[in-house]
Amino acid sequence: MHFDLTDLRLFLAVIQAGSITHGAAEAHLSLPAASERLRGMELAGGVKLLERGRRGVAPTEAGEALAHHARLILRQMEHMQGELGEYANGIRATIRLLANTAAITEFLPDRLGPWLAAHRRIDVDLKERQSSEIVKAISAGLADIGIISDATDSSGLQLRPFAIDRLVVVVPRSHPLATARKIAFADILQHEFVGLAEGSALQDYIEAQAARTGTKLKFRMRVRTFEGICRLAAHSVGFGIVPETTARRCQRPMAIVSLRLTDAWATRRLKICFRSGEEPSPVASDMISHLSAAA
């Protein structure tokens, strides 16, 4: 029986996604190549590893056993690469980091900059995901470190403090609501909005809160940055919801004011997460310590 590292990474990606198509994309393989590898793994092992159905795929009992050992093997490989990356010339290590929108835009550049400057042979593969997706990926061994909201169920993961992220509404200084210091989300749902481009984890989170009230937000425009939202809000294009740190940075030059949202979901305590029961690689552990120390 012979499985290479690509096979193991593909198998974990497929069971985490519940789909061969999405798992192949995550593993950077074409669908035919991924399907052929999975068939080869079942033939080599002489056992069925996946149950295939209309709604996707799920691991069999043998598949669960393979996934367990695959995670251990890949973790050991990462540890080895991390240690060699510190001491061997020409060998680089990569830390796979998943984070939500606010962490990526508001906190990580300043937090990670000094650490990366001091670790020249370490690279970071950073991807934006919703907190629930990050928990699944970390649990499945598909990433090393995650940054999530503490409102997300993180059972089975170790947590460290990272930051407090408060969401606020930004409106032009000339707006009648500009004199208010805080406001409830329900009280602004009838207004028009400017939001982030589709696919943003934070924007999906905000729209999910509106959906819970039976409301769909009306967007006049979507942009790629929080600063873009603030600029459009300053011109009375629509209300924006951004991190408080962004609003403070943009408030004076853009003639906007920020109103703190009173809803509990608008104040999020961000946490660093990683797998329980397994020590992170030395470089990943050092990064976790650095990021949590700043909290």
Automatic annotation (TrEMBL):
Keyword terms of this UniProt record: DNA-binding, Transcription, Transcription regulation
Gene Ontology CC entries for this record: cytosol
Pfam family name, one: HTH_1
Residue ranges occupied by any HTH lysR-type domain in the UniProt entry: 3-60
InterPro entries cross-referenced by the UniProt entry: HTH-type_LysR_regulators, LysR_HTH_N, LysR_subst-bd, WH-like_DNA-bd_sf, WH_DNA-bd_sf
Superkingdom field: Bacteria
Coiled coil start-end: none
GO molecular function term, any single one: DNA binding
Keyword Amino-acid biosynthesis: no
CDD domains the UniProt entry points to: PBP2_LTTR_like_1
Family designation: Belongs to the LysR transcriptional regulatory family.
The protein's name: LysR family transcriptional regulator
